[in-house]
Amino acid sequence: MAKPALDKDLKRVSGLEVATHDLARSLAGPGIALVFLLAAAVWASFVVADGPTSYLVVIAAVIAGYMALNVGANDVANNMGPAVGSKALTMLGALIIAGTFEAAGALLAGGDVVNTVARDLLIGEQLDGDTFVLVMMAALLASALWVNLATIIGAPVSTTHAVVGGVVGAGVASAGFGFIAWPIIGTIAASWVISPMLGGIFAAILLTIIRVTITNRIDMISAARVWVPILVALMTGIFAMYLATKGLKRIWKPDLPLVMLLGLSFAALGWIIAMPMVRRQSLTIENRKKHIAKLFRVPLIVAAALLSFAHGANDVANAVGPFAAIVTTIQTGHMESAGLALPLWVLFIGAVGIALGLALFGPRLIRKVGEQITKLNEIRAYCVALSAACTVLAASALGLPVSSTHIAVGAIFGVGFLREYIAQREMKGNAVPAQARFVDPAMLNATPEDALAKERQQARRRLVRRQHVLSIAAAWVITVPASAVLAALVFLGLNLVIG
After folding, report:
1. Maximum average pLDDT range among 1-15, 93-107, 467-481
2. How far apart are CA 89 and CA 102, in angstroms?
3. 148/131 Cα distance (integer angstroms)
C-alpha cells in the first residue's frame, strides 16, 4: 500500500513543479515589462531639468513606455504574421528580425509622423499648457489601456486608431468639439478606408503577376530563375530609396536624382546577389508549386524586415507622439505650433518599448494573423508583406499616420479573396470536381453533385474565414469610440487629481 501512496505523492510534487514553472513563465513577461517602465521613469527623471512640473514628465514617460509595449505586442503581429504563418521564419527568428528593424525604423525615421499625431490633431492655442499636458496624458493612457485589453482578448486592433481616438476624446472633454482639427481627422479617416483597400489591391495584383509569370507556367523553375531575382531587386531598391530620403535625413539629405540613382544601384545589387542564390536553390527542387514557393523565402524575409522598419518609423508616433508633446509643452510653457522637438531619448523609449513588447507579448497575435485568417505559403505571404511595406512606406514619407493593421490585414484579405475567386471560377467551369471524375462516386459516399457542393464548402472554409473578417472589422469600428470615451473619463479623473 505504501508504493501507490508514494506514486501519488510524486505525481503531486511533479504537478506542483509544472504549475510553478508555468506560473513563473507567465509572470516573467510582466516582470520584465515593469522593470522597463521603472527604467523609463528613472531615465526621464535624470534627463528633465528639475521644476514644479517635472514629475509629470516622469509619469508621462511611464505611460509612453506602457503604450510602446502594447504597440509591439499588438501591431507588430501584422508585420511578422505572414512570414511565421507560411513557415518561412520561426517565431524566434521573426522576433529577432522584427525587434531589430522596428527599433531602427523608430530611431531613424520616426520624426514626421510624430508631428502629425501630437501637434496637428489639436488646436493647441485654445488651451493653456497645463491643460494640454493633461489632454496628452489622458489620450496616451486611454489608448494604451484599450490596446492592452485588445491584446489580452486576441484582437489585432489599430494602435493608430486608439491613439487618435484618445486624443479626440480627451480634447473634447477638455475644451469641446472646437478644440479638434476636424479637417486633419477627416484626412486620417479617409486614409483608414483607402489604405486597406490599397493593401488588398496591391497584394492581389502582385499575386496575379506571380501566377502569370511563374506558377502558371509549364516550366516554373525556369520562370522563377528569371522573376524571383527581379522581385528581390524591387525590394532592395525601394528600401535603399526610403533609407536615403528618411532614415538618414539627420546626417544626409540627397536630392531626388541621387535618390533615384541609389535605388537603381541597390536594385541592381540585389539582382546580382539573388541570381546565383535562386539558381543554386532551383537545382534541388521539383517543378511543383510547393517547391517553387520555397524560392520566395529570402524575398519574404527581406520584405518582412522592410515592413518592420516602416512600421517602426510610422507607429512609434503612437507611443511617443503625445509624450513628445508633453515634454515640449512643459519645457517651453506652451504648445509649439512651428515644430515639435524630438529628443533622441524620447524616441529611444518608444523604440525599446516596441521591441520589448513584441518579444514578450507578441507571439500570440503573430500566430493569429499568420495562420487563422487564411492559409499562407511563402508566395502569398511575400505578396502580403511587400504590398503592405510599400503602402506603409508611402504613408510614412507623407507624414500620414495610417493604420498598419488595416494595410497588412487588408493585404491578407486581398490575397485570400483572390484565391477564393479563382477557385470558384475554376469550379464553375467543371461540372464535376476532379476527385469525382477519377474516383467512383460510391467510394465518396456521394453523388458527383454532392461532392461538388462539399468541395465548394471546403474551399470557402479553407481560403478565407468569414468570422475573422467580421470580428476584425468590428474591432476596427469600435476602437476609435471606445478609446475616445475612455480618454474623456481619464482626463476628467486626472483633472481632479492633478489639475
Report:
1. 93-107
2. 17
3. 26
Q: Where are the alpha helices (DSSP H) in 110-252?
A: 111-115, 129-153, 159-175, 182-210, 220-242
Q: How many CB atoms lie within 10 A of CB 45?
A: 14
| Phi, psi for residue 180 in degrees, rounded to 5 | -90, 135
Give the chain's radius of gyration (CA, Å): 25
- Looking at residue 249, what is its pLDDT? 58
Q: In this predicted model, what pLDDT tens digit does every residue of 111-159 receive, in sequence order?
A: 655 555 656 676 655 566 778 888 889 999 999 999 999 888 877 888 8
Q: pLDDT tens digit string along 40-94?
A: 999 888 887 666 677 888 999 999 999 999 988 888 777 788 888 888 888 888 8
| Residue-range domain boundaries for the chain | 30-219+287-429+464-497, 220-286
Residue 259 CA to residue 400 CA, distance in Å, equals 21
Model pTM score: 0.78
Q: Which of 218, 225, 206, 214 is nearest to 384 (CA)?
A: 206
Q: How far is CA 123 from CA 48, 127, 135, in A?
A: 26, 8, 12
Q: DSSP string covering 252-287, please?
A: ----HHHHHHHHHHHHHHHHHHHHHHHHHHHTTS-S
Cell 479553407 -> residue = 462
Helix axes 297-332, 91-109, angle to 10 degrees: 40
**What does the alpha-carbon distance between residue 480 and residue 160 come to, in Å, rounded to a whole number?**
9
First to last CA, the chain: 71
Closest of 223, 193, 246 to residue 393, by C-alpha: 246
| 441 band by pLDDT with thresholds 50, 70 and 90 | very low
The pLDDT of residue 306 is 78
CA–CA separation, 392 and 308 (whole Å):
10
CB 113 within 8 A of CB 317: yes
User: What's the rounded Cα separation, in Å, for the pair 174 and 6?
Assistant: 67
Which grid coordinates belong to 391? 503602402
